[in-house]
Amino acid sequence: MITLTYACLGIIITIIFLNFNNIWSTLFTQTTLLFFISSINLTNLNSPFFPCNISYNLATDNINLYLIFLSLWLIPVSLLASINNLNKFSINNIKIFSTIIIFILIFLIITFSSYNLLILFLGFEATLIPTIFLIAQWGAQFERIEASYYLVFYTLIGSLPLFLALLIIYNNENHLSIIQFTLNNVNINNYYLIVFCLIAFLIKVPIFGVHLWLPKAHVEAPIAGSMILAAILLKMGGYGFIRLITIFHYNIITQISPIIIPYCSWGGAIASVICLTQTDLKSLIAYSSVSHMSFMIAGASLLTNWSFIGGMFMLIAHGITSSALFAIANIYYERTNTRTLVISRGIKNSTTLMPIFWLIFTCSNLGIPPLPNSIAEIFLFSSVISFSNFNIISIVITTILTAIFSLSLFQLTSTGNSFNWNLTPILFQEREYLLLLLHIIPTFMIITNPNIITI
Questions:
Q1: Which residues of 32-54 are buried (b: 16+ CB within 10 A; e: fewer)?
Q2: Confidence of residue 183 (pLDDT cuts 50, 70, 90)
Q3: Which of 63, 179, 190, 329 is deepest in the core (most CB within 10 A)?
């Protein structure tokens, strides 16, 4: 992990000396090589609680390894998606933007690989600063400042209780090592202390009720910001939640699960209802993330092997799918200059290949077998139903509404009236096809070999 961090710092140093003609090719090459080298060096063990590659409280196991790979895979993809938007800026602006993206990658590696709760907390919070810069500096509209405020205040509201709770735990246990917590059962009688630990990660996921920052951040963020937010940064909340519930598993089962499972199940259903009312393309995709991740939290709270597998599948599958949906939404926006669904219509009049990509990823978002989201939903829904048969109602509502807004999303963008912008064929760039292909490759890898994600 230290090696990966130094490699990222090396990429930042090379950015300083790049010129306008070779900055994108060099960045994409370096970040791609970083992924392939890390995939060779990082070793995966069969047990989720015995880490390998230990170095200064940084290690990998079956829980964080896939999220590290997801981060390393999607960072070059997000840079690839940003080329067209950033070429209108100066070379210094592009260098600053690229440096911020690499810093986010460094903080992600630290967060996912940390085996100390304090280091995990520091990496978790450190991603806030570069994300705010992305939204405030390269956002699409003036409302990006308001979106930045929302992101800051929601994050700080959850982070302060988490920090205080970690201090209390350290004072009682004399350590914050995840390995020692896993080997020695921790029984904390203070119910509020556990809630303080979890609230910051539930806000970052986010679950329904603490999600208001997410649509604003997604709508105003640049394409790379939206892809990183949806595909990686939201997964930090799910990862932190999984780490903490494995530590406080006794208290979670007896005190938290009976409350959080029905709340998240119905919260996911309500988020699906909200999706039906959205007219903005990016806002609709953002609210669908709230619905999916709410069920991920509900399933993971059961602390069974079945629900853990479903949670990990949802983290990875949703990360790929949501990133692809935002990438296609940006491709549409570059042609239509609007994200309004009523106007962004009739793309099949201009091209025949792009609607195929749109259909694949909307079906993935819907959870049609054998796409990875369907595997996650089978595990999660069955786990939630095993907790209470009453949850069948919320699951049925969510499934029906998700089918409605996902298929409506495809229909509205691909069919409809012809406008001046789609009367003539549009030449899509090879870069855009490569961008979507890099999302399809991991999707079909999981389809052909689901055991690639094991717990």
A1: bebbeebeeebeeeeebeebebe
A2: confident
A3: 329
Cβ–Cβ < 8 Å for 130, 254: no
Whether the per-residue pLDDT at 267 is higher than 80: the answer is: yes
pLDDT of the residue at 49: 46
SS (H, E, C) the chain: CHHHHHHHHHHHHHHHCCCCCCHHHHHHHHHHHHHHHHHHHCCCCCCCCCCEEEECCEEECCCCHHHHHHHHHHHHHHHHHCHHHHCCCCHHHHHHHHHHHHHHHHHHHHHHHECEHHHHHHHHHHCHHHHHHHHHHHCCCCCHHHHHHHHHHHHHHHHHHHHHHHHHHHHHHCCCEHHHHHHCCCCCCCHHHHHHHHHHHHHHCCCCCCCCHHHHHHHHCCHHHHHHHHHHHHHHHHHHHHHHHHHCHHHHHHHHHHHHHHHHHHHHHHHHHHHHCCCEHHHHHHHHHHHHHHHHHHHHCCCCHHHHHHHHHHHHHHHHHHHHHHHHHHHHHHHHCCCECCCCCCHHHCCCCHHHHHHHHHHHHHCCCCCHHHHHHHHHHHHHHHHCCCHHHHHHHHHHHHHHHHHHHHHHHHCCCCCHHHCCCCCCCHHHHHHHHHHHHHHHHHHHCHHHCCC
Domain ranges of the chain: 2-452
